[in-house]
Design brief:
alpha+beta, binds zinc ion
């Protein structure tokens, strides 16, 4: 350590041998490895922030399709029922089940959308070479803190389980919203995989 009082947020521990380093982002096509055990600590991809922004915008666009179009259609004994994501959320909005309805809306729709909007706010000016917009650090911190509460992917897993259970009783066909929501879940996972929190923090601190 070159300084006697390093900022703890700037310290990086090697996940293999716990050696401590002060974080400095490697340049393009450089990688940072642990000097003691050789574990690769950072391997930045050029244009990663642009990829994050593109994934976030694509997920937002698909989210609007997921809300507007039918999610699935069920056919049993000549009766057909069609449901959208909004129908699924509001079907619990009766009597004392209303809080559940609100919780589903917040966890599978509002928070994932809010996280995407926050990420767009943080990355958009950086992609175009400008300084971060006011409050970008707060926006990014909120985006990170909300991650455990953003459950669009878990909703899709729940839908898949329900489909297996219902498949014997009714014929199910998937609407555009189903595929849009499935794509949103994949894009959200890809976006989180591409986002290097430490690199973004470093850029936001510097700007
Ligand atoms: Zn190491």
């Amino acid at each position: 350590m070159s300084s006697r009082h390093p900022d703890p947020a700037e310290l990086v521990a090697c996940p293999t041998c716990d050696a401590l380093y002060r974080f400095a982002p490697p340049g393009p096509r450089q990688t940072a490895s642990c000097a003691r055990c050789g574990t690769v600590l950072f391997a930045p991809r050029p244009g990663a922030i642009r990829t994050v922004l593109a994934l976030a915008l694509a997920a937002l666009a698909l989210m609007t399709i997921a809300l507007d179009y039918p999610f699935l259609t069920m056919n049993a004994n000549g009766l057909t029922a069609q449901a959208s994501v909004i129908d699924a959320v509001s079907s619990y909005a009766v009597d004392d089940m209303a809080p559940l309805s609100l919780a589903i809306a917040v966890l599978i729709l509002l928070l994932p959308t809010l996280r995407l909007l926050l990420l767009v706010y943080v990355t958009l000016p950086l992609v175009f070479g400008g300084r971060a917009w006011p409050g970008a650090r707060t926006a990014f911190r909120l985006n990170v803190q909300l991650r455990p509460w953003s459950m669009a992917e878990i909703f899709m897993v729940g839908v898949a389980v329900a489909m297996v259970k219902v498949a014997d009783l009714a014929t199910i066909s998937f609407g555009p919203a189903f595929w849009a929501f499935a794509a949103v879940a994949l894009l959200l996972a890809a976006k989180d995989a591409v986002t290097c929190e430490r690199t973004l923090w470093h850029i936001l601190r510097a700007s």
